Amino acid sequence: MSMKPLEFDRRYGELDIVVSAFVGQEPDGPDADTPPPALQAYLRHTWHTRPRALSVAEQQLREYARNPPGRLRLRLGEFYPVPDVGLPESRTQSWLFEVADHIKRSIESGDVPPPGPPRTHWEWHARFPELGQLLGGWFSQDMPDEFSDHDAAVRDYKASTDPQVTARLVGEIHELLALDLEEHDYTMGVAELGMEVEPPAPLSVARWLESVADHLAVARPDYGKEG
Questions:
Q1: Cut 0.85: pTM above it
Q2: pLDDT, tens digit, 9 for 90 and up, residues 162-176
Q3: d(CA 35, CA 150)
């Protein structure tokens, strides 16, 4: 039978996050001493948000590499099946050890990557999860068929989302704008986060995001409370 969520997280939770960061990316770096870009993205995000998770990742990667599951246990769902990251099956075990070694060196050296803009699809979504929900859910290619305009989609998001989550989204937008990227980079970023329509003319992506944050930051009146 399949492994229960709690047991899965204890044994493979952080391993799954690390490997997911490699999906669609090159599994190897330019040389043995340099972490691949996908791992650099994981390290950059995790050092600044969940530094204690790094040692868990190193341990889970190494333990899995030491005790790879057989085909039967994989089929029964008792082990974590490593997603395809573009490596032959015979290379996976040594690759996991290499990734664990990179993480160990980063921990032991205290080499914290400086803050910077996301550089992979995984990192964009890990850093701006709620913005990804808004853009991918309300501004997909179907948006013109569902809403009269961009403002209507934003109003619908606000009406259907908990105010605390909305506040988190506003913070993510301000964090993204604080990166002070070129317009081309903002366009690429919102596309990575799921936006499939252009911002309303004549606004740039950055200016439109700023207007969305301004609109959502307005407190929603609560008529259920007495003054």
A1: yes
A2: 999 999 999 999 999
A3: 40
